[in-house]
Design a protein that fits this description.
This protein is α/β, with parallel strands linked by helices and 367 residues long. The protein is 41% helix and 20% strand. The longest helix is centred in the first third of the chain and has 20 residues, at 14-33. The protein binds nicotinamide-adenine-dinucleotide, 3-isopropylmalic acid and manganese (II) ion (MN).
Amino acid sequence: MSNPSLLILPGDGIGQEVMAEVRRVIEWFGAKRDMQFDVSEDLVGGAAYDKHGVPLHDDTMAKAQEVDAVLLGAVGGPAYDDLDFSVKPERGLLRLRKEMDLFANLRPAQCFDALADFSSLKKELVAGLDIMIVRELTSGVYFGEPRGIHMEDNMRVGVNTQRYTEVEIERGARAAFELAMKRDKKLCSMEKANVMESGILWRDVVTEVHADYPEVELSHMYADNGAMQLVRAPKQFDVIYTDNLFGDILSDCAAMLTGSLGMLPSASLGSPMENGRPKAMYEPVHGSAPDITGQGKANPIACILSFAMALRYSFDEGAEATRLEAAIEKVLADGVRTGDLLSDENSTGVSTSGMTDAILAALDESL
Ligand code: NAD
Ligand code: IPM
Ligand code: MN
């Protein structure tokens, strides 16, 4: 049998820096756990635009469709802010998600004990926090038509359309219920059924799917209240299922509960391929962080934890994923910190590669 294949797309800014660290982790698993991957690397975002004039070359798109999993760093940055909308770096990422049909975006927010003090919320509110946001990723206002900027009555009008079919809502809901079944069997669905028809349909469809998962306790919440509840009492949640835009915002919000955006991984999953594995892309929740690019300050943990999710969801290596997560937990418990995990702006902590050094040492100790 051939080795599982991985396409690495570091992208822009700190995406390149954190992905270099993930490659070291992949090499560790090759050398010490005899897990070999066929790794290839390509361009996405601004890096692809610089070379090809588009944020994702068709050949890269084709490769992404063929591999067992894609790992993506981050895209975007000020150098590309004034580009035409159609070739902005973010379009490359959105094309990958859409054409691979990665409809279920899993964004776990777990607070490591060692960081409970560091969260912007009180320690008792976040200690032991473990929630999973399932964000619908291929539809909604991100992709709905009509869209664009046009003239009307002598003024510019910007249009985006929130559009959901029941099939789109249902397949994401099934993914969320399946996850809830493996966790604490609690699912909270978030929309704005009070003001949006798509929200009314969302609530109806999720309620219908619930009939197949009677063991799961289902609740519905308006997304604005959900945002408030996430910072008031986050531990009330187990799995949250929400749409593309609300999920984008709520997951950044959940990120800060864990201490830093530099901690949050994600898995974007689609339908099973011929080999039974889901189409998949793994990426940190954070962006290219232009403010710290090139300074060795980026926290690589979100991206390394995204690789752990790949081990679990694409390669049936749950035990090795747990090994990697435990190594990260140990390093944090030992007090190793990148700058984003330190409150004193004058203390520098370890560098991006220093954090990986510590994680690799903890992995060695785990053997
Ligand atoms: P961002 O996530 O890049 O940064 C927000 C803040 O968090 C910054 O202060 C940054 O320094 C900090 N931060 C983020 N990741 C960090 C890490 N690993 N370690 C330490 N600190 C970290 O969001 P932004 O500034 O709003 O966006 C910058 C660019 O990234 C934009 O072009 C945006 O479109 C893009 N973006 C891309 C993705 C993605 O590729 N998935 C996600 C979000 C934003
Ligand atoms: C994310 C990002 C993306 C999104 C952007 C960069 C397209 O914010 O992955 O959270 O809005 O989905
Ligand atoms: Mn986002």
